[in-house]
Structures are given as structure tokens and as C-alpha cells.
Amino acid sequence: MSGVIEALREALTAQFASDPAVMLLLGDPLRLYDERSTRAAFPHASWGRIETHESGADGVRLLEVRLGLDVWYRDGEPGPVLDALADSVSAAALPNLPEPALPEPWRLITLNPAYRDVFSTRERRLKRGLLRLRAVVGGGLA
Length: 142
Known about the structure:
The protein is α+β, with helices and mostly antiparallel strands. Helices cover 25% and strands 42% of the residues. It is elongated and about 55 Å long.
């Protein structure tokens, strides 16, 4: 399953890096990291929690993947960055994502923003935005 998750993350990173609205807020090169960076310029984003659930029947496997994106913003609100990331995912046509990168026999079926919120942190000036994405990937499809 980790190959499917890595392929989704790579496809999303490529989508964000090609979106002018996201690049305006997160820079070029894109300030999107595998883990939270304490040295990166603000705002920046990092991949967060990953959840998977597998189901299916009659030769078809479905994998629901929930990917978290954390947006770190100092002295401001991460809301516009969350909106730009969510809009980028919503605007992306599934065929434009590099589906061949998904390990066979998996195919991307849906990809949508599922949840977003902003949280205060212990550091008064720092806020954390959370965007959760939901993907459904199918395996064993002809």
C-alpha cells in the first residue's frame, strides 16, 4: 500500500507545483515537505497523518486513503493557503494526475478535499491549518 500512497503524494505535489495560486502562496520551489520543518520560511506545508481502509468484493479491491496536509503560518491566517490547496485538488481532472505512477493494478477513482480547519498552537504567533484529502483507489479493475 505504501506505493499507492507515495504515488498519490507525488501526483498531488506535481499538481500543487503547477498551480499558480498555490505557488503564489507556497513559493517556487514549493515549500511542501515530508515532515514539519522548523527551518522553512512561512507559510509552508507538510504531509501529515495518513489513514487507509481496504474493502471490496468480487475481484475488485478498493482502498480509501485519507491524506493530511498541515499548513504552518506565522503572524497570519493559513485559511487562504488551505483554500488554494483544496481548490487545486478540486480543479484537477483525474486524467491529469499521473495515474501510470500508481502501481499496477491500482487506479485512482476519486480524489477530493474532505475537511479543513485552523488551529492555534502553543506558540502564540504560529497557526496550523489542516486539510484532509480523501482518495479512493481501485485494484483488480479491468
